[in-house]
Amino acid sequence: MREILGDIDRWRAQNKRIAVARVVDIEGSGPRDPGAAMAVNEDGEVCGSVSGGCVEGAVVAEALEILKNKSPGRLVKFGYSDDEAFAVGLTCGGVVHLFIQPLSW
Amino acid sequence: MLYSALAERVRKNKPVVLLTVIDGPNTGATLLIAPDQGKIETLGTLGNAELDRVASRDAIGELEAGRTSVRNYGPAGQVTPEDLQDTPVVRVFVESFSPPPQMIIFGAVDFTAALARVAKVLGYYVVVCDAREVFATKRRFPMADEVLVTWPTPVLSERGPNLGARDAICILTHDPKFDVPAIQGALATSVGYIGVMGSRKTHAKRLERLAEVGVTKPQDLARLMSPIGLDIGSRTPEETAISICAEIIGKRVGRNVPSLANSEGPIHR
Questions:
Q1: Would an 8 Å CB–CB cutoff place B70 in contact with chain A?
Q2: Based on the structure, what is the number of domains in chain B?
Q3: Is B185 exposed, middle or buried (0-12, 13-18, 19+ CB in 10 A)?
Q4: Which residues make Cβ contacts (< 8 Å) with residue A70, sequence separation at least 6?
């Protein structure tokens, strides 16, 4: 979170709606530890990262959906060839659990 | 606002922990816990006063250990398996923001600038210390968080008690007047890494000087990574900085890395 505070502050100053995605858990090999964070604003601008670049695209789509639906937030799982999750996966074979929520706090 | 309070504390390198309900009743609810001089400030709620109380107590423990984890509770803070039967589970993400680890570098030499730069990339709070005021200037080390013109002993008696397993002391001076007290001071702390620069010959002579001041215990000498860094054939200050930081990472996670301190033969081939 530390490294994305600057971008979030800038977006907040512009009154943009923002969603934050954080890694809350990993199983097996995962590129980023719990606490890794990225943020997406209503225009689809992005800062930070939650993987080695494998799932960020899908996270943006999910984040924009959450902002649109005014959802309080949800857990999203990305894994290797995981049918329940998105069509993207982690090439490292691990599973990453993300919590994505609007920055309404 | 909770976010502003979090951002302010993180920026000031003060410890803080953010709790977020990621599943169950009140998903998305947040609680911020900020210990401040013995008092604990809280902001927000997870939706139930007793849950807040129990989760806060756990969160303080996680923060002290520098851990980030997910914990499960009942909606009213229940924790035992019996109490959790027949209740929905509230999953709480406990995210610790600990102050960054510190690296104290003794000796304001060319290697210092490169090491300070690499340490900043890794997120360290970097302090450069040298007694020679012509060399220890903020202009020469703009990347350092602090540049101190003083001797090792006062710096380590003041800051030593705050150093722990995540922190590092790198002694890059070759001057016996400086490196012997720096090593003595460093050994008196619980710092996780002590690296001392010098050739194998310098290292051997230094051991003699340390023996003269009574530093002879094998468990003390074993803490000194000297010659500093990994045996990767680094030559430039930048390459040496990478080799030092790689050694620090390896030591911290308990890997068996090829340290120069544990090998023989020439450092440069």
A1: yes
A2: 2
A3: buried
A4: A102
Residue where a domain terminates, one of B30, B64, B97:
B97
pLDDT tens column, A9-54 = 999 999 999 999 999 999 887 778 899 999 999 999 999 999 877 7
**Residue B31: closest C-alpha in chain A:** A105
| A19 shares contact with chain B (CB less than 8 Å) | no
Instruction: Choose one of B97, B125, B157: the last residue of a domain.
Output: B97
Residue B70, helix vs strand vs coil: strand
**Is B268 within a domain?**
no
Residue among A35, A74, A105 minimizing CB distance to B30: A105
**Residue-wise pLDDT tens digits, A66-88:** 999 999 999 999 876 555 444 55
* Chain A residues with beta carbon closer than 8 angstroms to that of B97: 1-2
Residue B213: domain span = 102-262
d(CA A40, CA A45): 6
Per-residue pLDDT tens for B79-118? 988 888 888 999 999 999 988 899 999 999 999 999 999 9
Asked if residue B140 is part of any domain, the answer here is yes
Is residue A98 within 8 Å of A73, Cβ to Cβ?
no
Q: Is B22 within 8 Å of A24 when comparing Cβ atoms?
A: yes
* DSSP per position, B126-190: EEEEES-TTTS-TTT-TTSSEEEES-HHHHHHHHGGG--TT-EEEE----HHHHHHHHHHHHTS-
Residue B52 in this model has a pLDDT that exceeds 80? yes
Extract the tokens encoding B153. Answer: 């002993």
Q: Which residues in chain A (74-93) have CB-CB distances under 8 A to chain B?
A: 74-75
